[in-house]
Amino acid sequence: MLLKETQDQLLPTLKTYFGYDSFRAQQQQIVESVLLKKDNLVIMPTGGGKSICFQLPALLFEGLTLVISPLIALMKDQVDGLKANGIEADFFNSSQDSIEQEAIFEQIIQQKLKLLYVAPESLSLLQNILTEEHLSCVAIDEAHCISSWGHDFRPSYQQLGFLKQTLPNTPIIALTATADKATRADILEQLNIPKATQFIASFDRKNIELEVRPANDRMAQIIKFIRKQPNESGIIYCLSRKGTEQTAAKLKQNGINAAAYHAGLNFDERSKVQENFIYDQTKVVCATIAFGMGIDKSNVRWVIHYNMPKNIEGYYQEIGRCGRDGLKANALLFHSYADVIQLRKFMSGATNEEVQAAKLDRMKQFSEATACRRKILLSYFGELLAENCGNCDVCKNPPQFFNGTIIAQKALSVITRLKEKEAIGTVIDVLRGAHNATVLDKGYDKLKSHGVGSEISWRDWQQYLIQLMNQGYCEIAFHKNNALQLTEFSKKVLFQGEQVNLTKPTEFKEPIAAIKKS
Ligand code: ADP
Ligand code: ZN
After folding, report:
1. Which of 481, 499, 494 is nearest to 416 (CA)?
2. Which residues cross the membrane (predicted)?
3. Rounded to the nearest whole angstrom, what is the distance from the C-alpha of residue 377 to the centroid of ligand 1?
4. What is the ipTM of this complex?
5. Bridge partners of residue 209, in order along the sequence
6. In this predicted model, what pLDDT tens digit does every residue of 167-209 receive, in sequence order?
7. Most informative mutation of 13, 14, 18 for ligand 1 (most atoms within 8 A of CB)
8. What is the tens place of the pLDDT at every residue in 372-408?
């Protein structure tokens, strides 16, 4: 139990230094746990109020709280904010000269400083003060960076395990906005704080309506979507710089007030786009993932993913940038098979390729799911919803299954005839009995199964094949030109009459051009 004396100081300190009248959910418990010198792991969405959890205890502890953060670019702002509130804070990094660094040491030794922000790379320079005499607490921000299971692994975080060994009695508080179950366990293990108390805030953002659509004629869909609420702000995430620019240009051609944002712009250009967005001068920003990290805009009404994100953590973090005011908001994801292939290619050769690929698979499964999307999303973060959410496309429009065994048999037999060498586009062309160059050149028009599926449209075949892949009846060989191949399960359908359940494809007018090319 916390001393009554300390307990009584909590609210007045919150008010005096931060200007808030009350704690938000869980903040008080976390603050108390830190003050009791326990180790803690805090998982709270962006904007949830993690900073108070270590900044307030820092003020009540005798010595210094060290804050480890990877975001050097944001450190100065954070420190300036604290100073403006009358808090003795500073940051320490390699950009400072030895005189400045000496001055910081001096302040620490005289116990004047309450918070010191430091990047993990600079920790070695601080060895002299990494003692229990000087430090009362260590906060590790963006703690998921320590885990190669996480989506933003940083090697410089890996050394942080030494902190607990050097400072066994100093409480550690690790904080992050995104960490699935595996990542959480890894954080505790690597930081040597196996007994840390875990505070996991709910990740459910009920006000955000979730929707996934096939990526047919995305631009037309996006324009229609925006025109339904033309005065609202939104973000469109694209995979590439070029994508952001093309999308913004198309929107402008259609009279929509849009701008592109990506790492290729210079600092001034980027600041300008951000500022215009924050002050509602620009309604729509087409951005790569770099956009939105530090911005605090509560009335972003929607987020569109023009391209598939590479994992669920990233997707969740990005959609979390809309609806912060708690009012109704929309997250629309375009599911494109071509994107999945592209992302998979980016990953090849990465050190943790397997993990990344598995995460991409989960993302794909989420996109193609026929169950409540929020349930899937939350269960990914270890939170189980008892009821379907009622605020996602699947809940609003539950799929109806039908016996699709014949369809499956046709598809799998064509894949067999094509010797498992052709990608999805050609498989569909052969199913539909096309007479295009590829089909004729390779003599596929002579195959017995050429045209067995001509009664089904190109687009519907595409969706059926994805469903078949989801259910494991066929798979893509990424390393063999994305050829569609059979699996163990295929045999059951082809030779043992196993029943396959499919859902009716969603209706769209245009064929999926992007897929045809691949
Ligand atoms: P996080 O680090 O989790 O993204 P922050 O600590 O930056 O979140 O807080 C997000 C916002 O919430 C900030 O604008 C902060 O001022 C505000 N906030 C935090 N705690 C409280 C509180 N107890 N009462 C009111 N506002 C708060
Ligand atoms: Zn739902």
Report:
1. 494
2. none
3. 24
4. 0.97
5. 330
6. 999 999 999 987 777 889 999 999 999 999 999 988 889 999 9
7. 18
8. 899 888 888 777 787 889 999 999 998 888 999 999 9
